Amino acid sequence: MCLGLPMTIVDTDGITALCEYGNERRRVSILLLSDASAGAKVLVHIDSAVRLLTENEARLISEALHGLEASLNGQDCDRFFADLIGHEPQLPEHLR
């Protein structure tokens, strides 16, 4: 399984961008994005930014990743998924 990281563009030369997530910095391709600029949130898969993210999307993905890490370490992870607790997941119409 491949996980995408919600990274923030620090600097770009138009072809690649220096991005950060937490304490990690890496240079990624932004060839798939036409309007990526410093400060933008991007979803990075295998060192390629595949799409721009809203602040809220980046936050939710980051919380899910922190929740997964907590769960793997045997810690309580409910606080990372507060938006899901008490809600019955709904299938999309085409899957009902």
Automatic annotation (TrEMBL):
GO terms (BP aspect)? protein maturation
- Tell me one GO molecular function of this protein: iron ion binding
Pfam families in the record, alphabetically? Answer: HupF_HypC (PF01455)
Classification via InterPro entries: Hydrogenase_HupF/HypC
Q: Which domain of life is it from?
A: Bacteria
The record's listing under NCBIfam families reads: hypC_hupF
Q: Would you identify the family this protein belongs to, as annotated?
A: Belongs to the HupF/HypC family.
**Which named protein is this?**
HypC/HybG/HupF family hydrogenase formation chaperone
Q: Which gene encodes it?
A: hypC
